[in-house]
Specification:
The structure is a single chain. α4 packs antiparallel against α5 and α7 crosses α11. A hairpin with an 8-residue loop joins β1 and β2. This protein has 2 domains: 279 residues, Fido-like domain (Fic-like fold); 66 residues, Arc Repressor Mutant, subunit A (Orthogonal Bundle), CATH 1.10.10.10. The chain is built from 14 helices and 4 strands. By secondary structure, it is mostly helical. The protein starts with 16 loop residues before the first helix and ends with a strand. The strands form 2 sheets. A two-stranded antiparallel sheet has the order 1-2. A two-stranded antiparallel ribbon has the order 3-4.
Length: 364
């Protein structure tokens, strides 16, 4: 079976608009919903949420490639680069520094047309600081060798995709860049453009390494361009959680120029990511509202437990809060735990569910 780039009409992608039009509109609506929720925060808080979203994106886009970076290292690296740390914090994890630098660079120039120089700069920043033994053969330049993409399941040794020969990469990338920039002016729906751009870029696989992270960065650039403002939605969080479906859809799409199914699946994955992000933002607003009213009346134990509960986000504290859990977190007696929890219910911070030994408490 021929790969998409080996087919006669490459790179003319086709799709059936009737099958994706509703999904596309739903995607745009979800993006606007997130923008509206973000506007509920004050300027400083909104900027902080944007930074947190970039950290989440950095951690997840790295995880998709099997690289583990911590949110703390990514955040410190980003704050260092933004001058937000009075004294720069040492970040020893070059992977965290690299992906942080990449996303900040994407944010700073999201309006600008995509160029070969820009992509090479992204690649350079992503791998800056990597030790020689772990860095790609070429940093900041197109690959010089053949590329074979293996199965994401490490137990399988099968080749899932073979990229075009390295000798044609410069020509293919010139054509890709022309399409990318011209497609921004054609009225092509944002998620359709993002889906095709991601598949197109991954099909060429222009670099020795980092193609997945750069390809997902392109999605963020496109969404920002269509929104006329940089809005970082951590799409890679959802893609990581559904990575088997993501990889399989990408694999299937590599054998056809009819990308209807790829757009459908990819749009669904991205939309789910947006919905989850919106739920988290709404949860955080709810927490701020609850605290604005009740914080002066909460003691240190109650604040500590409430903070621990909020760390679980909109999914909630596993199994709910109980007097026993409260005891362990606040290091207090059962009687005090029960009294503190009852007070928090009375203040409207928590709600009580169940009876007897099954009593649990959740954020109101």
């Amino acid at each position: 079976m021929l790969y998409n780039w080996q087919q006669k009409n490459w790179p003319t992608f086709t799709y059936r608009l009737s099958e994706i039009e509703e999904l596309s509109r739903g995607f745009d609506i979800q993006v606007e919903r997130v923008k509206a929720v973000l506007s509920a925060f004050d300027g400083a808080t909104e900027a902080g949420k944007s930074l947190e979203a970039m950290v989440a994106e950095a951690v997840s886009t790295s995880a998709i490639e099997g690289e583990v970076v911590t949110p703390q290292d990514v955040m410190s690296s980003m704050k260092n680069r933004l001058g937000k740390n009075a004294k720069p914090i040492s970040v020893r994890d070059y992977r965290a520094s690299g992906v942080a630098s990449l996303l900040l660079t994407v944010r700073q120039a999201f309006v600008e047309p995509l160029t070969a120089t820009m992509l090479r700069d992204w690649h350079q920043k992503l791998f800056d600081g990597y030790p020689v033994r772990e860095s790609p053969e070429i940093i900041g330049g197109y690959r010089k060798d053949s590329i074979f993409v293996k199965a994401s399941d490490l137990d399988e040794a099968s080749i899932r995709f073979e990229a075009p020969p390295s000798r044609v990469v410069p020509k293919e990338m010139t054509r890709f860049l022309k399409w990318f920039n011209e497609s921004a002016q054609t009225g092509l729906a944002s998620v359709v453009r993002a889906a095709i751009a991601h598949l197109y870029f991954e099909s060429i696989h222009p670099f020795c390494d980092g193609n997945g992270r750069l390809g997902r960065a392109l999605v963020s650039k496109i969404v920002a361009q269509h929104s006329s403002a940089f809005i970082m939605i951590p799409f890679s969080v959802g893609l990581f959680e559904q990575r088997k479906a993501y990889y399989e859809a990408l694999h299937q799409a590599s054998f056809t120029l009819d990308v209807t199914e790829w757009i459908r699946v990819f749009t669904g994955l991205l939309t789910t990511s947006i919905q989850s992000y919106e739920a988290e933002l709404r949860f955080q607003i709810r927490v701020l509202c609850l605290l604005s009213k009740a914080k002066p009346q909460l003691n240190e134990r109650q604040l500590k437990v409430f903070d621990r509960m909020t760390q679980e986000g909109s999914k909630g504290f596993a199994g709910g809060m109980s007097a026993g859990k409260y005891q362990k977190i606040a290091h207090t007696s059962k009687a005090t735990a029960t009294r503190d929890l009852s007070e928090m219910v009375g203040l409207g911070v928590l709600i009580r569910l169940g009876e007897g030994a099954g009593v649990r408490y959740e954020i109101a």
